[in-house]
Amino acid sequence: LVVDGKAVAKTIRDEITVDVSRMKESIGVVPGLAVILVGDRKDSATYVRNKKKACESVGIKSLEVRLAEDCSEEQVLKSISCFNDDPSIHGILVQLPLPSHMDEQNILNAVSIEKDVDGFHPLNIGRLAMRGREPLFVPCTPKGCIELLHRYNVEIKGKRAVVIGRSNIVGMPAALLLQREDATVSIIHSRTKNPEEITREADIIIAAVGQPNMVRGSWIKPGAVIIDVGINPVDDPNAPRGYRLVGDVCYEEACQIASAITPVPGGVGPMTIAMLLSNTLISAKRIHNFE
Ligand code: NAP
Question: Backbone phi, then psi, for 184, in 5-degree steps?
Fold first, then answer.
């Protein structure tokens, strides 16, 4: 079974479109997302463009601030503070990575937790980690992974889950989310001695490593469900751009053994953007007390 992230993301965007217009009609509020892009990395510019397009497609207002690569940290902090105070903005996103002369922690800490639609503020991550606490926002990529499992009726409770990768933006929050849903979770990282053996125990695998085709067929328990977060360019002279994108999981091998798997592209990627829109809508609803 192919887990069709593109189709699920489309369904979610349609649901969001309905809610956005319902909100506009009944209380006259349009959800607003502010995106801060520092420097001129091509990949970052593409991500920001896609996020803005996605906002447009569901009726969310988006605003972009572009700052030069060599601007000061204070300038970034100033933009954040403006948006923190702007009642027409419900979500603030600072596109990462930031230029190396800036302190990422300082900058992420400055985003109001009520508008932290990326869910990267330490207070939101801390609440995610604590039992009995609720974060205001959950980071978009891991939230998209769990949403896919839900929409495909994959039982999480009581299952063995393995997350490969422990980054702040994907692996770590994915593991916390699985644990909140009562899975028994193992986390594999670059110092793990026997990743293959541990992965083979898993009913659910979330791979977020950034290593093309690392997870081979022999790593997978028959019937496991695989969510492949990896987006890795590999050379391909036959592809129009000279490269193509592959996941962290060897798809050809895995699809023979797994019961369900996300493709790359068309799996987690579209879900990430859908969750950003969802978080922005959630924020606007919460701020305006709209159900
Ligand atoms: P990252 O910050 O580079 O983290 C990679 C993690 O994988 C680290 O925890 C690292 O371990 C671990 N790792 C690296 N090599 C390993 C190995 N050989 N064996 C076991 N663990 C290993 O990457 P990220 O930001 O989490 O992204 C991971 C992948 O997801 C990338 O391909 C990225 O492009 C993709 N991604 C996709 C989306 C989406 O929307 N679909 C969003 C974000 C990222 P250590 O902690 O020990 O260094």
Answer: -100, 115
Q: Where are the beta strands (DSSP E) in the chain?
A: 32-38, 61-67, 91-94, 160-164, 184-188, 204-207, 225-228, 232-235, 243-246, 260-261
Coil, strand or helix: which one is 233?
A: strand
Structure tokens of 95? 């596109």
> Which one of 4, 116, 118, 228 is the catalytic residue?
118
* 115 classed as catalytic: no
Span 78-89, pLDDT tens digits: 999 999 999 999
Q: How do residues 108-118 score in pLDDT, each as one tens digit?
A: 999 999 999 99
Supply the pLDDT for residue 45: 96
Residue nearest to atom 39 of ligand 1 (CA): 269
Q: How far apart are CA 267 and CA 163, in angstroms?
A: 17
Distance of alpha carbon 196 from alpha carbon 202, whole angstroms: 10
The owner of tokens 């009913």 is 203
- pLDDT band for 289, please (50, 70, 90 cuts): very high
